[in-house]
Amino acid sequence: MFNSVLLTVDLNHEASWQKALPQAVELVRASKGRLHVLSVVPDLGTPLVESFFPSDFEAKAVAAASQALNDLVTREVPEDVTVQQHLAFGDIHQKILEIIDQSKCDLVVMASHKPDRVREFLVGSNADRVVRRSAVSVLVVRA
Asked: Which run of H or of E encompasses 56?
């Protein structure tokens, strides 16, 4: 089965892990593997946008996300599951792809909202980008 499963979560949206987390736990339990839980704090995009935020914004955002990730894992991941937390800052799909390589995971589990043509055209989907670029299988759970 899968010895190492990477679950991606958006700490601001419970739907990103509500259905995906139980799936990831079930897969890890079946193989007695390791669960990696990743959340990415998105960067602000451009220096112009960054100039409107306080200079310590990134550090505060990462610290808050770290605490929220720890709380989520403590509260939602069963004690019998071996888990490792990952927190990144930057472009979401790029950071997910980096952690896939770093963690040497066999499978990525991530939630995605129901497709919306206009939103997909204008913004794109991180799940879509990961599916197209990942070297490992990706299980997309509809939120």
From this structure: none
Give dist(CA 20, CA 27) in Å, integer.
Answer: 11
The pLDDT-based confidence of 123 (bands split at 50, 70, 90) is: very low
pLDDT of residue 117: 60
Residue 48's CB is within 10 A of a number of other CB atoms, namely: 8
Structural domains of the chain in order of their starting residue, each with its CATH number: 4-142 (3.40.50.620)
> What single-letter amino acid sits at 123?
V
The predicted-structure confidence for 42-80, as pLDDT tens digits, reads as follows 887 777 777 777 888 888 889 999 999 999 999 999 999
C-alpha distances in Å from residue 20, one per residue of 53, 81, 92, 108, 121: 33, 15, 17, 10, 25
141 close to 19: Cβ distance less than 8 angstroms: yes
The per-residue b/e assignment along 122-136, b for 16 or more CB within 10 angstroms, e otherwise, is eeebbbebbbeebeb
